[in-house]
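G., before I forget:
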Amino acid sequence: QKEVEQNSGPLSVPEGAIASLNCTYSDRGSQSFFWYRQYSGKSPELIMFIYSNGDKEDGRFTAQLNKASQYVSLLIRDSQPSDSATYLCAVKTSSNTGKLIFGQGTTLQVKP
Amino acid sequence: KAGVTQTPRYLIKTRGQQVTLSCSPISGHRSVSWYQQTPGQGLQFLFEYFSETQRNKGNFPGRFSGRQFSNSRSEMNVSTLELGDSALYLCASSGPGTGHTSPLHFGNGTRLTVT
């Protein structure tokens, strides 16, 4: 079992729709969870992070965390073609470390 | 604030050679981590340095090494290059604290091609 799993996609949504990206992790002791966006040929860009159960909103983005189910998701409201990218879920399994465990990423395509 | 700066952006090397990559973290960040990204394996953790000490290490052979200087700048070295070392090498910094709420910020990466 992979430590962090994501559906590779592609996930295709029409412009203006809600895109839902999901991630599961295996280490129950994981501390915090990060979503990065990566455009083709570019480096990962931090979108947001969450470490408490529940929802965290930032603009059009909402991260949701359910530690009991070992599940984290990212919702993108009013999706735009510029949101088309690979979304990487990453997990920090302990404090005081720069080590993140990444999923393989989900490719999102937003069609005009 | 300036972001994480990596140099060079591109490198082409021959099998058997060695290479050194450089990373300057965001000002005030003391933790620097290195990652390798390939299409097949995705993003994999190489190692992390904090206050000039290696704090964590991933599952890479000893040919991969690094160091951190007193100004938090970091270098990674790959010796005896193999074709499979061709990848995007990413440096990330975090801080000033390094607890679980400190996100990593990535540089633009160094694209290494080994021929």
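Chain B has no helices and eleven strands. Chain B has a mean pLDDT of 94.

More on Monday.
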